[in-house]
Amino acid sequence: MVVLSQPIVDGNLAQIKTCKAAGDSLAIPAVDLSQFGAKTLIVEACKELGFFKVINHRISVDFLTKLEGEAMKFFQLPPQEKAKSGPPNPFGYGSKVIGPNGDVGWVEYLLFSTNPDLASRNPNSAAPGISQSLREMANEYVSAVREMTCEVLEMIAEEMEMETRQALSRLISDEKSDSCFRMNHYPACPELQALSGRSLIGFGEHTDPQIISVLRSNNASGLQIRNADATWHSVPPDPTTFFFLVGDSLQVMSNGRLKSVKHRVLADSMKSRVSMIYFGGPPLTERIAPVKGVMEEGEESLYKEFTWSEYKKSAYKTRLGDNRLSFFEKSALADQ
Protein backbone atom coordinates (compact mmCIF):
# COMPACT_ATOMS: atom_id res chain seq x y z
CA MET A 1 0.00 0.00 0.00
CA VAL A 2 1.29 3.47 -0.89
CA VAL A 3 1.13 6.05 1.90
CA LEU A 4 0.90 9.52 0.43
CA SER A 5 1.56 11.51 3.59
CA GLN A 6 5.20 10.41 3.49
CA PRO A 7 7.72 9.32 0.83
CA ILE A 8 6.62 6.35 -1.25
CA VAL A 9 8.92 3.60 -0.02
CA ASP A 10 8.94 -0.14 0.52
CA GLY A 11 10.90 -1.17 3.60
CA ASN A 12 14.47 -0.04 3.18
CA LEU A 13 14.13 0.75 -0.53
CA ALA A 14 14.96 4.18 -1.87
CA GLN A 15 12.13 6.55 -2.67
CA ILE A 16 10.08 5.75 -5.75
CA LYS A 17 10.05 8.95 -7.78
CA THR A 18 7.14 10.83 -9.27
CA CYS A 19 7.08 13.02 -12.37
CA LYS A 20 4.84 15.51 -14.08
CA ALA A 21 2.17 14.18 -16.39
CA ALA A 22 3.38 13.87 -19.98
CA GLY A 23 2.17 15.81 -22.99
CA ASP A 24 -0.03 14.60 -25.82
CA SER A 25 -0.05 11.13 -27.24
CA LEU A 26 2.27 10.57 -30.16
CA ALA A 27 1.30 9.19 -33.55
CA ILE A 28 3.40 6.04 -33.83
CA PRO A 29 4.53 4.87 -37.29
CA ALA A 30 2.68 1.64 -38.10
CA VAL A 31 4.29 -0.89 -40.44
CA ASP A 32 2.72 -3.88 -42.20
CA LEU A 33 5.74 -6.07 -43.02
CA SER A 34 3.96 -7.59 -46.02
CA GLN A 35 3.36 -4.27 -47.76
CA PHE A 36 5.58 -2.67 -50.38
CA GLY A 37 7.84 0.00 -48.92
CA ALA A 38 7.81 -1.45 -45.40
CA LYS A 39 11.60 -1.46 -45.10
CA THR A 40 11.76 2.24 -46.00
CA LEU A 41 9.12 3.09 -43.38
CA ILE A 42 11.01 1.11 -40.75
CA VAL A 43 14.33 2.86 -41.35
CA GLU A 44 12.70 6.30 -41.47
CA ALA A 45 11.00 5.60 -38.12
CA CYS A 46 14.27 4.34 -36.62
CA LYS A 47 16.05 7.51 -37.73
CA GLU A 48 13.37 9.92 -36.51
CA LEU A 49 12.02 8.25 -33.36
CA GLY A 50 13.90 5.00 -32.80
CA PHE A 51 10.43 3.51 -32.41
CA PHE A 52 7.60 2.02 -34.51
CA LYS A 53 4.93 -0.65 -34.30
CA VAL A 54 4.28 -3.71 -36.45
CA ILE A 55 0.68 -4.45 -37.41
CA ASN A 56 -0.92 -7.43 -39.16
CA HIS A 57 1.76 -9.79 -37.84
CA ARG A 58 1.39 -13.56 -37.93
CA ILE A 59 1.34 -14.13 -34.15
CA SER A 60 -2.07 -15.17 -32.82
CA VAL A 61 -3.75 -12.53 -30.65
CA ASP A 62 -5.56 -15.37 -28.83
CA PHE A 63 -2.17 -16.85 -27.92
CA LEU A 64 -0.96 -13.46 -26.68
CA THR A 65 -4.04 -13.12 -24.48
CA LYS A 66 -3.52 -16.60 -23.02
CA LEU A 67 0.14 -15.87 -22.27
CA GLU A 68 -0.85 -12.63 -20.56
CA GLY A 69 -3.34 -14.61 -18.46
CA GLU A 70 -0.66 -17.11 -17.45
CA ALA A 71 1.65 -14.28 -16.45
CA MET A 72 -1.07 -12.72 -14.31
CA LYS A 73 -1.65 -16.03 -12.53
CA PHE A 74 1.95 -15.79 -11.36
CA PHE A 75 1.83 -12.11 -10.43
CA GLN A 76 -1.36 -12.69 -8.42
CA LEU A 77 0.33 -15.31 -6.23
CA PRO A 78 1.06 -14.41 -2.58
CA PRO A 79 4.37 -12.53 -2.19
CA GLN A 80 6.03 -15.45 -0.41
CA GLU A 81 5.22 -17.76 -3.34
CA LYS A 82 6.58 -15.32 -5.93
CA ALA A 83 9.69 -14.80 -3.84
CA LYS A 84 10.65 -18.46 -4.42
CA SER A 85 11.55 -17.44 -7.99
CA GLY A 86 13.84 -14.62 -6.87
CA PRO A 87 15.75 -12.55 -6.22
CA PRO A 88 16.94 -11.98 -9.82
CA ASN A 89 20.62 -12.81 -10.30
CA PRO A 90 20.14 -11.63 -12.98
CA PHE A 91 17.23 -13.92 -13.99
CA GLY A 92 14.14 -14.70 -11.96
CA TYR A 93 11.54 -12.68 -10.04
CA GLY A 94 12.09 -9.13 -8.83
CA SER A 95 9.93 -6.48 -7.19
CA LYS A 96 10.54 -2.71 -7.18
CA VAL A 97 14.35 -2.98 -7.27
CA ILE A 98 15.61 -2.45 -10.86
CA GLY A 99 19.24 -3.46 -11.16
CA PRO A 100 22.01 -3.18 -8.55
CA ASN A 101 22.57 0.58 -8.55
CA GLY A 102 19.71 2.05 -6.57
CA ASP A 103 16.96 2.34 -9.21
CA VAL A 104 13.46 1.43 -8.03
CA GLY A 105 9.99 1.57 -9.54
CA TRP A 106 6.37 0.56 -9.06
CA VAL A 107 6.91 -2.76 -10.87
CA GLU A 108 7.39 -6.48 -10.37
CA TYR A 109 8.84 -8.67 -13.07
CA LEU A 110 10.13 -12.00 -14.33
CA LEU A 111 13.36 -12.07 -16.35
CA PHE A 112 14.31 -15.11 -18.44
CA SER A 113 17.38 -15.96 -20.49
CA THR A 114 16.46 -17.08 -24.01
CA ASN A 115 19.76 -18.95 -24.39
CA PRO A 116 19.15 -22.60 -23.35
CA ASP A 117 22.86 -23.27 -22.82
CA LEU A 118 23.26 -20.23 -20.56
CA ALA A 119 20.12 -21.11 -18.65
CA SER A 120 21.31 -24.69 -18.03
CA ARG A 121 24.62 -23.38 -16.61
CA ASN A 122 22.96 -20.79 -14.35
CA PRO A 123 20.84 -22.35 -11.57
CA ASN A 124 19.42 -18.92 -10.73
CA SER A 125 17.64 -18.87 -14.08
CA ALA A 126 15.43 -21.82 -13.16
CA ALA A 127 12.82 -19.72 -11.26
CA PRO A 128 11.23 -22.71 -9.46
CA GLY A 129 7.93 -20.91 -8.84
CA ILE A 130 7.17 -20.62 -12.55
CA SER A 131 4.49 -23.01 -13.82
CA GLN A 132 5.36 -25.37 -16.65
CA SER A 133 2.58 -23.90 -18.79
CA LEU A 134 3.93 -20.35 -18.39
CA ARG A 135 7.46 -21.52 -19.16
CA GLU A 136 6.34 -23.38 -22.31
CA MET A 137 4.22 -20.48 -23.55
CA ALA A 138 7.05 -18.02 -22.91
CA ASN A 139 9.40 -20.20 -24.98
CA GLU A 140 6.85 -20.34 -27.81
CA TYR A 141 6.39 -16.58 -27.64
CA VAL A 142 10.13 -15.90 -27.76
CA SER A 143 10.56 -18.19 -30.77
CA ALA A 144 7.81 -16.41 -32.71
CA VAL A 145 8.98 -12.91 -31.77
CA ARG A 146 12.60 -13.74 -32.58
CA GLU A 147 11.54 -14.82 -36.06
CA MET A 148 9.63 -11.57 -36.61
CA THR A 149 12.57 -9.57 -35.24
CA CYS A 150 14.98 -11.24 -37.66
CA GLU A 151 12.67 -10.28 -40.51
CA VAL A 152 12.65 -6.66 -39.37
CA LEU A 153 16.44 -6.56 -38.94
CA GLU A 154 16.93 -8.00 -42.42
CA MET A 155 14.70 -5.29 -43.87
CA ILE A 156 16.78 -2.66 -42.06
CA ALA A 157 20.01 -4.17 -43.38
CA GLU A 158 18.66 -4.27 -46.93
CA GLU A 159 17.36 -0.71 -46.87
CA MET A 160 20.62 0.61 -45.43
CA GLU A 161 22.68 -1.39 -47.96
CA MET A 162 24.65 -3.26 -45.36
CA GLU A 163 27.18 -5.86 -46.48
CA THR A 164 24.68 -8.73 -46.22
CA ARG A 165 20.97 -9.01 -45.52
CA GLN A 166 21.80 -11.08 -42.42
CA ALA A 167 24.32 -8.55 -41.04
CA LEU A 168 22.05 -7.85 -38.05
CA SER A 169 19.69 -10.81 -37.86
CA ARG A 170 22.52 -13.35 -37.61
CA LEU A 171 23.42 -11.88 -34.22
CA ILE A 172 20.12 -12.77 -32.55
CA SER A 173 19.58 -16.02 -34.48
CA ASP A 174 23.04 -17.20 -33.35
CA GLU A 175 22.79 -20.03 -30.80
CA LYS A 176 25.05 -17.97 -28.51
CA SER A 177 22.87 -14.85 -28.76
CA ASP A 178 22.70 -13.07 -25.40
CA SER A 179 19.02 -12.19 -25.66
CA CYS A 180 16.52 -12.15 -22.82
CA PHE A 181 12.78 -11.97 -22.19
CA ARG A 182 11.07 -9.91 -19.52
CA MET A 183 7.51 -9.82 -18.20
CA ASN A 184 6.63 -6.65 -16.27
CA HIS A 185 3.59 -6.09 -14.06
CA TYR A 186 2.72 -2.57 -12.93
CA PRO A 187 -0.05 -2.92 -10.32
CA ALA A 188 -2.87 -0.41 -10.29
CA CYS A 189 -2.36 2.26 -7.64
CA PRO A 190 -5.62 4.08 -6.75
CA GLU A 191 -3.77 6.33 -4.29
CA LEU A 192 -2.19 8.10 -7.28
CA GLN A 193 -5.32 10.24 -7.57
CA ALA A 194 -4.05 12.19 -4.54
CA LEU A 195 -0.76 13.09 -6.22
CA SER A 196 -2.18 16.31 -7.72
CA GLY A 197 -1.44 15.61 -11.37
CA ARG A 198 1.88 13.87 -10.80
CA SER A 199 2.57 10.28 -11.79
CA LEU A 200 4.40 7.46 -10.06
CA ILE A 201 7.39 6.02 -11.92
CA GLY A 202 6.85 2.37 -12.77
CA PHE A 203 10.12 1.97 -14.70
CA GLY A 204 12.44 4.95 -14.96
CA GLU A 205 13.69 6.57 -18.16
CA HIS A 206 16.36 4.63 -20.03
CA THR A 207 17.51 3.29 -23.37
CA ASP A 208 17.96 -0.43 -23.98
CA PRO A 209 21.58 -1.52 -24.49
CA GLN A 210 20.82 -4.40 -26.88
CA ILE A 211 20.34 -4.28 -30.67
CA ILE A 212 16.56 -4.02 -30.67
CA SER A 213 13.68 -4.58 -28.24
CA VAL A 214 10.18 -5.82 -29.04
CA LEU A 215 7.37 -4.91 -26.64
CA ARG A 216 3.79 -6.06 -26.36
CA SER A 217 1.42 -4.96 -23.59
CA ASN A 218 -2.18 -5.25 -22.49
CA ASN A 219 -4.65 -2.41 -23.01
CA ALA A 220 -3.32 -0.26 -20.16
CA SER A 221 -1.48 2.99 -20.81
CA GLY A 222 1.80 4.00 -19.20
CA LEU A 223 4.52 3.68 -21.84
CA GLN A 224 6.10 6.99 -22.85
CA ILE A 225 8.94 7.89 -25.21
CA ARG A 226 11.04 11.02 -25.41
CA ASN A 227 11.49 12.67 -28.78
CA ALA A 228 14.41 14.70 -30.13
CA ASP A 229 13.35 17.92 -28.39
CA ALA A 230 13.33 16.11 -24.99
CA THR A 231 9.51 16.15 -24.74
CA TRP A 232 7.80 13.10 -23.26
CA HIS A 233 4.84 11.65 -25.16
CA SER A 234 2.41 8.91 -24.19
CA VAL A 235 2.19 5.88 -26.45
CA PRO A 236 -1.43 4.75 -26.93
CA PRO A 237 -1.71 1.09 -25.86
CA ASP A 238 -2.48 -1.47 -28.57
CA PRO A 239 -2.46 -5.12 -27.44
CA THR A 240 -2.78 -6.37 -31.03
CA THR A 241 0.55 -4.94 -32.20
CA PHE A 242 4.25 -5.11 -31.35
CA PHE A 243 6.34 -2.03 -30.60
CA PHE A 244 9.97 -2.03 -31.75
CA LEU A 245 12.61 0.07 -29.97
CA VAL A 246 16.10 0.76 -31.33
CA GLY A 247 18.79 -0.16 -28.81
CA ASP A 248 22.20 1.37 -28.13
CA SER A 249 24.04 -1.37 -30.02
CA LEU A 250 22.06 -0.72 -33.21
CA GLN A 251 22.79 3.00 -32.87
CA VAL A 252 26.50 2.17 -32.89
CA MET A 253 26.19 -0.37 -35.71
CA SER A 254 24.48 2.28 -37.85
CA ASN A 255 27.09 4.88 -36.79
CA GLY A 256 24.45 7.05 -35.19
CA ARG A 257 21.96 6.99 -38.07
CA LEU A 258 19.40 4.97 -36.11
CA LYS A 259 18.64 6.37 -32.66
CA SER A 260 18.15 4.40 -29.48
CA VAL A 261 14.97 5.74 -27.91
CA LYS A 262 14.68 6.87 -24.30
CA HIS A 263 11.49 5.53 -22.73
CA ARG A 264 9.81 5.01 -19.37
CA VAL A 265 6.62 3.58 -17.86
CA LEU A 266 4.28 5.35 -15.43
CA ALA A 267 1.88 3.62 -13.07
CA ASP A 268 -1.88 3.96 -13.53
CA SER A 269 -4.37 4.62 -10.76
CA MET A 270 -7.05 2.22 -12.02
CA LYS A 271 -5.52 -0.31 -14.44
CA SER A 272 -2.66 -2.72 -13.96
CA ARG A 273 -0.28 -2.95 -16.91
CA VAL A 274 1.34 -6.15 -18.15
CA SER A 275 4.09 -5.94 -20.75
CA MET A 276 6.34 -8.50 -22.38
CA ILE A 277 9.68 -7.44 -23.85
CA TYR A 278 12.08 -9.44 -25.97
CA PHE A 279 15.58 -7.93 -25.91
CA GLY A 280 17.55 -9.00 -28.98
CA GLY A 281 21.20 -9.13 -28.00
CA PRO A 282 24.32 -10.40 -29.83
CA PRO A 283 26.75 -13.07 -28.59
CA LEU A 284 28.91 -11.83 -25.72
CA THR A 285 32.08 -11.91 -27.82
CA GLU A 286 30.60 -9.98 -30.77
CA ARG A 287 32.42 -6.74 -31.58
CA ILE A 288 30.01 -3.81 -31.81
CA ALA A 289 31.02 -1.36 -34.55
CA PRO A 290 29.49 0.22 -37.67
CA VAL A 291 28.43 -2.48 -40.14
CA LYS A 292 30.16 -2.53 -43.51
CA GLY A 293 28.16 -0.66 -46.13
CA VAL A 294 26.64 1.84 -43.70
CA MET A 295 29.25 4.59 -43.73
CA GLU A 296 30.15 6.89 -46.60
CA GLU A 297 33.66 6.90 -48.03
CA GLY A 298 36.01 8.66 -45.61
CA GLU A 299 33.47 8.66 -42.78
CA GLU A 300 34.85 7.72 -39.38
CA SER A 301 33.15 5.79 -36.63
CA LEU A 302 31.61 7.94 -33.90
CA TYR A 303 32.31 5.27 -31.31
CA LYS A 304 35.19 3.30 -29.88
CA GLU A 305 34.83 -0.36 -30.87
CA PHE A 306 33.82 -2.71 -28.05
CA THR A 307 32.44 -6.18 -27.48
CA TRP A 308 28.87 -6.73 -26.35
CA SER A 309 30.24 -8.20 -23.11
CA GLU A 310 32.23 -5.01 -22.45
CA TYR A 311 29.26 -2.76 -23.13
CA LYS A 312 26.88 -4.91 -21.12
CA LYS A 313 29.19 -4.80 -18.07
CA SER A 314 29.58 -1.04 -18.45
CA ALA A 315 25.84 -0.46 -18.89
CA TYR A 316 24.87 -2.41 -15.81
CA LYS A 317 27.28 -0.40 -13.65
CA THR A 318 25.29 2.76 -14.40
CA ARG A 319 21.95 4.16 -13.29
CA LEU A 320 18.95 3.70 -15.58
CA GLY A 321 18.84 7.28 -16.84
CA ASP A 322 22.57 7.61 -17.58
CA ASN A 323 23.82 8.08 -21.13
CA ARG A 324 25.64 4.75 -21.34
CA LEU A 325 26.99 5.32 -24.82
CA SER A 326 28.79 8.49 -23.75
CA PHE A 327 31.60 6.38 -22.31
CA PHE A 328 32.30 5.00 -25.79
CA GLU A 329 31.89 8.14 -27.90
CA LYS A 330 35.17 9.14 -29.53
CA SER A 331 34.46 12.83 -29.04
CA ALA A 332 33.95 12.33 -25.33
CA LEU A 333 37.09 10.19 -25.06
CA ALA A 334 39.11 12.87 -26.84
CA ASP A 335 38.04 15.44 -24.25
CA GLN A 336 39.25 13.36 -21.31
UniProtKB/TrEMBL annotation:
Assigned keywords, A-Z: Dioxygenase, Iron, Metal-binding, Oxidoreductase
Domain Fe2OG dioxygenase stretches: 176-282
Catalytic reactions on record: gibberellin A1 + 2-oxoglutarate + O2 = gibberellin A8 + succinate + CO2
Gene3D superfamilies per record: B-lactam Antibiotic, Isopenicillin N Synthase, Chain (2.60.120.330)
Record-listed E.C. numbers: 1.14.11.13
Pfam families: 2OG-FeII_Oxy, DIOX_N
GO biological process: coumarin biosynthetic process; response to molecule of fungal origin
Origin superkingdom: Eukaryota
Enzyme class: oxidoreductase
Pathway membership, UniProt: Plant hormone biosynthesis; gibberellin biosynthesis; Hormone biosynthesis
An example Gene Ontology molecular-function term: gibberellin 2-beta-dioxygenase activity
SUPFAM superfamilies: Clavaminate synthase-like
Family to which this protein belongs: Belongs to the iron/ascorbate-dependent oxidoreductase family. GA2OX subfamily.
Function: Catalyzes the 2-beta-hydroxylation of several biologically active gibberellins, leading to the homeostatic regulation of their endogenous level. Catabolism of gibberellins (GAs) plays a central role in plant development. Converts GA9/GA20 to GA51/GA29 and GA4/GA1 to GA34/GA8.
Designated name of the protein: gibberellin 2beta-dioxygenase
Naturally occurring in which organism (per UniProt): Salvia splendens (Scarlet sage)
